[in-house]
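Worked example 2:
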Amino acid sequence: MHIHILGICGTFMGGLAALARESGHKVTGCDTGVYPPMSDQLRALGIELIEGFGADQLTLKPDMFVVGNVVSRAHLADGTPKFPLMEAILDAGLPYISGPQWLAEHVLQGRHVIAIAGTHGKTTTTAMTSWILEAAGLQPGFLVGGVPLNFGVSARLGQGKAFVIEADEYDTAFFDKRSKFVHYRPRTAVLNNLEFDHADIFDDLAAIERQFHHLVRTVPGSGRVVVNGLEESLARVLHMGCWSEVCSFGAAVNDFTALGEASDFEVLQQGKTVSHVRWSLTGTHNQLNALAAIAAAEHVGVPPAVAAQALGSFGNVKRRMELRGTVKTATGNVTVYDDFAHHPTAIRTTVDGLRRTLNAGERILAVFEPRSNTMKLGTMKAQLPWSLENADLAFCHSGGLDWDAPKALAPLGARALVLDNIDALVAQVSQAASGGDHILCMSNGGFGGVHGKLLNALQDK
């Protein structure tokens, strides 16, 4: 089968493309604003990438068009369609399908699906769970919304029964407004946490809770729902009804709990120590992610002790506190990191996690862009000062925002600076940086190559 993927460079659709290619299908795709690491991964697989959504792509004559949720029926100011290829597909009556539905029908059918859901930590926990199963010899398939360093690819079919998938609550496609994860029908579902997000498609937290309950409804009676016991929102979800075994983590009275620092802790199961995790990751959020992964892996037969040992060699995911480089200056080293954080809570936990690893006197320079649809709408702008309060300096790229970023960040006073140009941002950050500083760049996009530009500017300085 020849499939042509619209929106192929998104983390989910790029992973789907890799799985389809591994399954023996011919795969082509199109997108705009292509950037690594997904573009590099796709080209390495021999997948042809076409820039834009031109209607002339009909000449490829694929057997099926797989449509990502970036595609819409929107029109530009001059009245022309934003996605002419989609309009041409509809006009010609050609076959099309959403990415999640194609995946469910062609990859997930017959597998023991472990679906990792939550507002934060999906990618990292999916990678952790996949690595635990791999280390235990189960040869899992997986689809991760990033590139796990232990595997070097975001997706693979795997030889075993289990398939681990990052289960996103964002909608499926312009013609299917259900959350993606409703398609996956997991036997093990992880509910990692739940906050308000995706303000462009959800009116309030209750609307997201309803979608999470749709996921719970699909888990069989012999399945397991792994739930964060610290989250009131998830308690409300389960209160709507649950027909499967519930395995909780996080709180003192839960099935799985942790005792010790986030980088070195004992794992307790029902109050008894069953394993010990010692690894390079930081932050309480990653400790909770580890408990979720251990509980999920146990459901497919991996003992907690085996899981904990595997986590000791877990290499995290690209763009999750990824070290991009260190520059030696006259006053000491300046380190630059890249992180995917974009929701205020994720920004705060990322900054806090880094803070816990630093020595006295070392500073954090937080460099971020409010790029997600929710942040672009300004829905959570009031939370930004709270999310950045543990950073020494904050630099915001405001290009393309319709709300007043300087006003939103005013509570931080002189610690915050807002610029609407990447080059100006780089100049200000590099000028402010001195020996012992840690520059933490946070965005869910390419951020205009700010990491490399910062390293070059620091080198020149």
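Residues 322-460 form a domain with the Protein-Tyrosine Phosphatase; Chain A fold (CATH 3.90.190.20). The mean pLDDT is 92.
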